[in-house]
Amino acid sequence: MASVAPGTSSARHSFLYSSGHPPPAFSDPRQHLSASSAVENEHQQHYPGWHGRFPSSHKRRSEPEWSVKELIRMNPLHLFFIGFVPPFLGAIGSIVTALLLHNDEISNYNWQCGRARLPSLSRIINLPMERIFWQLTFLFHIPLRVVEIAVGFFRYGRLRSVECNWPRAYTLCRHFYLWLGSLELIFLIALSVVGEREFISYHVIFFYAFGAFAIGFFIMNAVCHSQSLYYLNPYGRISYHTKIVLTVFYVISVPILFGAFVLYWRKCITIMYDVFAVAEYIDVFLTIAYHCCAFFDIRYKVVFSVREVREMK
């Protein structure tokens, strides 16, 4: 194998010369490019699909006319903790604050059909102090969730497994992943901003719409994960099986949540509100746990880099 300086056109194709002899020397660079193209074409015939299978989303300085300068390189784990720890702390902090400071307002109070013993999370985040705490932490992570969905959409497109037997269905699932994830975020914002006390009917609609789109997003994410290179180790299978388990529990809990609310609201069965409150807690933490699987998806697999690309004159 010939030793060639990195960053040159020769380095770009040096791995193609596998005969043990150094590549021929050319006085005219155009002759070298022609020979390199011929070798690439021959390699393409023997190994179809090797080139362009995963096109780069960043321009590289593989040709002399491009100047690439890396401005920022961010550790993906830092972004994960910035984006997913605040919502978890916001949920825990709101519940603890309400239990310690406003217990009389959330426990054992009269509501639509009699006395409700357990407080629902919707009532907790509607209290003035808890509402501010919840909104600051949950709305803070929304921009990073947008980045997560956008990066996942493009990387699922580039990293589809060669063993995927239904590429068209995979592409459809990838687009559903984008739209369902976006709608999940929209309704999360809506139910966080629109309180239970001000507009209870709208709050309930936003809550169940959020749950429905979350289920769809979870399923599409797991399907795309199983048919992409994200499934590979390290952590690929752990992340996939964790997503499946959390999705199953979430799907089971949603009918319980909806049925308990309807039985309390329509039939005035008081204990059903307590069942609804417990199911609501479970759903919120299942949602947070599912999105925390991104820790396994990006660790050792994703690099966030901001680059400046200029055309050299």
From TrEMBL:
<protein>
    <recommendedName>
        <fullName>CWH43-like N-terminal domain-containing protein</fullName>
    </recommendedName>
</protein>
<feature type="transmembrane region" description="Helical">
    <location>
        <begin position="200"/>
        <end position="223"/>
    </location>
</feature>
<dbReference type="GO" id="GO:0006506">
    <property type="term" value="P:GPI anchor biosynthetic process"/>
</dbReference>
<dbReference type="GO" id="GO:0000139">
    <property type="term" value="C:Golgi membrane"/>
</dbReference>
<feature type="transmembrane region" description="Helical">
    <location>
        <begin position="244"/>
        <end position="265"/>
    </location>
</feature>
<keyword id="KW-0812">Transmembrane</keyword>
<feature type="domain" description="CWH43-like N-terminal">
    <location>
        <begin position="79"/>
        <end position="299"/>
    </location>
</feature>
<feature type="transmembrane region" description="Helical">
    <location>
        <begin position="176"/>
        <end position="194"/>
    </location>
</feature>
<feature type="transmembrane region" description="Helical">
    <location>
        <begin position="132"/>
        <end position="156"/>
    </location>
</feature>
<keyword id="KW-1133">Transmembrane helix</keyword>
<keyword id="KW-0472">Membrane</keyword>
<dbReference type="GO" id="GO:0005789">
    <property type="term" value="C:endoplasmic reticulum membrane"/>
</dbReference>
<dbReference type="Pfam" id="PF10277">
    <property type="entry name" value="Frag1"/>
</dbReference>
<dbReference type="InterPro" id="IPR039545">
    <property type="entry name" value="PGAP2"/>
</dbReference>
<feature type="transmembrane region" description="Helical">
    <location>
        <begin position="271"/>
        <end position="296"/>
    </location>
</feature>
<dbReference type="InterPro" id="IPR019402">
    <property type="entry name" value="CWH43_N"/>
</dbReference>
<feature type="transmembrane region" description="Helical">
    <location>
        <begin position="79"/>
        <end position="101"/>
    </location>
</feature>
